Amino acid sequence: MRKKIALIGSTGSIGRQVINVVNRYPERFELVAIAANTGGELFQRQMSEQKPAFAALRAEGETPCGVPAGVRFARGEGAFEEACAYPSADVIFVAVTGFAGLKAALSAINAKKVVALANKECLVAGGEIVMPAAKAAGVKILPVDSEHSAIWQCLAFDRGAPFSKLILTASGGALRDVPLGKLSEMTAKDALAHPNWDMGAKITVDCATMLNKGFEVVEAMRLYDAPLEKVEVVMHRESIVHSMVAFEDGAVLAQMSYPSMEVPIQLALTYPERLRANVAPLDLAKISALHFSAPDPARYPCFTLALECAKQGGDMPCALNAAGEVAVQAFLRGQIKYTQIAEIIEKTLQKTVRRKAESYALLEETDGAARRTARSFLP
């Protein structure tokens, strides 16, 4: 019997790669629902080629021309929520970016669906409500981020297995070798030229600032019930070791492969079985060296801010995420300098009064307030 998938965020980088996996193994997987924000030519093509039973766009607007026969189309918030809890789906694959991932995950959990989670913001902004909700509903959350999939693999697919420390690796992003005094001159084009990974614009800039790695620290705390002191980050420019787990006896297990999201994406759908993916086998004899070092706080102030929010907990990581989204989008538009991303986030956090993360409604308030505050600091 084929595994039925509802794909939330079908037009993004992760969503497109999920479809690659489905197309690679059509005898194993069936795409029963797809959802995106605004649609366009790509979404139209996905409807035509994949022919899901249901296709949804979150943004209001006109019905796309030429909805294929057999595909039910709807748009608006209600349609988005329906896709996130699609009745016949076995797995809800949350690949949508931004704060929207929190609603998608909660909708899937409420429907008691398995969640393959590729959205960082879900656990950063709302991990304190998502993880208890999943536990109460008996819902499995399968990590798709390369780092958290690596940890999951090192723990033999058991997120409850004991460990001594989780060690996340960071490439350092596109600007890792730029002199500190030159960072303010870096453009969006410079920050988007990641040396190892091909990702969306927002996450690529977050890699350059290492805000992304701060998010992953919070994710690790939530997914693996780990205190902050049990999560470590090391710089690893080759992106061959995707993360490591240290154990009480001194052993350290690492998951290694050439940098590609297809491995963790496919594994979330096939585990514990491993199938051939579109990734070359790792040839260690051709790798001259693997380097590791500590992060430089002067180069990565966003990472330091993220760790402080992780320590504070409550709705502070939610405010961090919202301010980061506003600042990065302003940088991508050429509205602010690269170095102002951290400045705007820090000013926003200074204006935020920490509250306990009690509900989606409260986090929605925090998200909106932090966005308004961050925008007030834009030129």
Topology of this protein?
Layout: E1 3-8, H1 13-24, E2 29-36, H2 41-50, E3 54-57, E4 72-75, H3 77-84, E5 91-94, H4 100-110, E6 114-117, H5 120-137, E7 141-143, H6 146-154, E8 165-170, H7 188-191, H8 201-209, H9 211-223, E9 231-235, E10 241-246, E11 252-256, H10 262-270, H11 301-312, H12 316-332, H13 340-350, H14 360-376
Parallel strand pairs: 1-2, 1-5, 2-3, 3-4, 5-6, 6-7, 8-9
Antiparallel strand pairs: 8-10, 10-11
Helix pairs in contact: 3-4, 4-5, 5-9, 5-12, 8-12, 9-11, 12-13, 12-14, 13-14
| Residue-averaged pLDDT | 95
Order of helices and strands: EHEHEEHEHEHEHEHHHEEEHHHHH
What percent of the residues sit in helical stretches (DSSP H or I)?
Answer: 40-55%
Largest sheet: 7 strands, parallel
Number of helices: 14
Question: What is the straight-line distance between the termini?
Answer: 56 Å
β-sheet strand percentage: 5-15%
Low-pLDDT segments: none
| Overall geometric form | globular
Backbone structural class:
alpha/beta
Strand order in the sheet with the most strands: 4-3-2-1-5-6-7
Instruction: Give the strand tally.
Output: 11
Radius of gyration: 20 Å
